[in-house]
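Retry 2 of 3 after timeout on previous attempt. Resubmitting structure tokens to design endpoint.
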């Protein structure tokens, strides 16, 4: 709990800074009339000003580690360089740095490779680095534990066109952490990664509103969309202290974690992009006054303009604004991104392993829970939220939800043997209305269990996943002994989906021989 509270505090600082950058890139004037209301989807939307390092008194760094009251915001001092007077040795550091491409000499905390495919089942094609944007960077200081920093990297994947017809892509991998002056140990509390198609243009001014991906002098990148079904693969060398869970704006992801050296792992994520609804609107003060709770958007009398999609308050934003917006998104865009999130381990022994990644939770919903799925003793629950319609006001927004979890962790939660698993997926709404899950999938490969649920509609549903298997405590008789998996042999089991109904609630049961639970009827 202490770590999670600390992460939420630090995430609040990050979200505030990112919202300012995004507003500068998308709003014509800071003095525009009315009240801007915007949900920021990804950590690096908009144009970045580069890497940032701040000097922080060591005692303040220690207070953050201990989750004690601190004055980091008021006492931190920006570092123009690591040799600036206020940033020399014997001071703690706050790092917010973009990772560069790995080279023969640059081997720590870097982007190993990028590959992107066309639509469908076309093979992934490797990308080549074109260069970086012109923004703030810092040279590495290995004696103090400071890694090399960079800016947004620009890549070309020859012949692999995005929706705009270009084959250029921006990659932004951001590492956040604190560095203690006494130990020189870097504590990383968050890593975020994003791949963004772009078209390059020449801008007459460095503040052009069209420059929505990156800016470098008079050149800039205009963010474009992926083609539906287009896949991307990103490999990054990261500290092996990064464990727990990831959140992704991804679909059907696969993940591999390989040891690179004594302190680093190479993390590779492969997945399709997803289309995410947007909320970005300008209300008059009178419209805000007419909301159910106007003071919610005016904390301490000040206008609250933006919130991150993974902020716990974002669900309340959607609840307050859904009716005034006629349940209609103001826009949409494609994205491919992931970031570390608190593991929410609590006291569950199955989440105690701090040596590896345990799972990835993925969704295209407008807003989502900032934590890993919660295990209530029988189900893994995850909260999302969104607006019912696409920007045309007629076409429903359909949700995607993928859960990728270590097979050993899943079996530990349920005390299951290694026999093949089945699963049921339910989507529950606050009003008790009937759910819609158009497609579900279940597969197990290379030590990871993947479950996907697609086609549900939005308000603020809770996605519930329940796994079914053979309990370890039960004796295995001859009728199920054939379900055991040999430790040395791979087994492929074909699963089928059965739709079951109980009152207004519908669930999908996925199993080699699916049956509806007691009290449920086959539809």
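Retry 2 succeeded. Sequence:
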């Amino acid at each position: 709990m202490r770590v999670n509270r600390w992460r939420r505090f630090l995430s609040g600082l990050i979200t505030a800074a990112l919202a300012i950058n995004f507003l500068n890139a998308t709003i014509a004037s800071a003095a525009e009339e009315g009240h801007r209301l915007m949900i920021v989807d990804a950590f690096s939307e908009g144009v970045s000003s580069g890497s940032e390092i701040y000097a922080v008194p060591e005692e303040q760094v220690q207070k953050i580690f201990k989750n004690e009251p601190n004055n980091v915001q008021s006492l931190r001092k920006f570092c123009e360089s690591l040799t600036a007077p206020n940033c020399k040795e014997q001071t703690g550091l706050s790092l917010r740095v973009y990772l560069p491409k790995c080279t023969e000499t640059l081997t720590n905390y870097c982007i190993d490779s990028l590959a992107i495919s066309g639509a469908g089942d076309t093979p992934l094609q490797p990308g080549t680095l074109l260069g970086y944007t012109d923004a703030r960077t810092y040279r590495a200081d290995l004696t103090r534990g400071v890694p090399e920093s960079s800016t947004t990297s620009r890549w070309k994947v020859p012949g692999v066109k995005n929706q705009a017809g270009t084959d250029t892509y921006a990659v932004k991998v951001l590492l956040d952490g604190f560095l203690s002056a006494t130990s020189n140990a870097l504590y990383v509390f968050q890593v975020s990664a994003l791949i963004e198609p772009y078209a390059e243009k020449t801008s007459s001014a460095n503040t052009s509103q069209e420059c929505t991906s990156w800016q470098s002098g008079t050149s800039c990148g205009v963010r474009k969309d992926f083609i539906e079904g287009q896949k991307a693969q990103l490999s990054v060398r990261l500290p092996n202290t990064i464990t727990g869970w990831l959140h992704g704006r991804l679909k059907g992801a696969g993940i591999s974690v390989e040891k690179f050296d004594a302190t680093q792992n190479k993390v590779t994520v492969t997945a399709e992009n997803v289309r995410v609804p947007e909320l970005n609107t300008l209300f008059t003060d009178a419209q805000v006054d007419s909301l159910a709770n106007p003071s919610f958007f005016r904390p301490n009398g000040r206008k609250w303009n933006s919130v991150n999609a993974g902020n716990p308050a974002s669900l309340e934003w959607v609840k307050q604004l859904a009716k005034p917006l006629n349940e209609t998104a103001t826009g949409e865009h494609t994205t491919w991104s992931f970031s570390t999130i608190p593991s929410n381990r609590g006291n569950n022994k199955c989440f105690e392993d701090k040596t590896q990644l345990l799972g990835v939770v993925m969704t295209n919903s407008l807003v989502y829970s900032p934590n890993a799925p919660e295990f209530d003793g029988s189900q893994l629950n995850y909260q999302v939220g969104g607006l019912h319609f696409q920007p045309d006001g007629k076409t429903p927004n359909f949700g995607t939800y993928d859960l990728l979890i270590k097979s050993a962790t899943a079996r530990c939660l349920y005390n299951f043997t290694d026999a093949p698993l089945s699963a049921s997926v339910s989507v529950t709404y606050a009003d008790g209305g009937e759910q819609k899950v158009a497609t579900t999938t279940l597969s197990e490969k290379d030590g990871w269990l993947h479950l996907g649920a697609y086609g549900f509609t939005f308000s603020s549903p809770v996605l519930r996943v329940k796994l079914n298997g053979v309990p370890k405590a039960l004796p295995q008789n001859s009728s199920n002994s054939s379900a055991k998996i040999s430790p040395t042999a791979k087994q492929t089991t074909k699963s089928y989906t059965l739709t079951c109904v109980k009152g207004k609630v519908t669930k999908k049961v996925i199993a080699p021989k699916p049956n509806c639970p007691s009290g449920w009827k086959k539809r």
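Attempt log closed. The CA atoms of residues 315 and 385 lie 6 Å apart.
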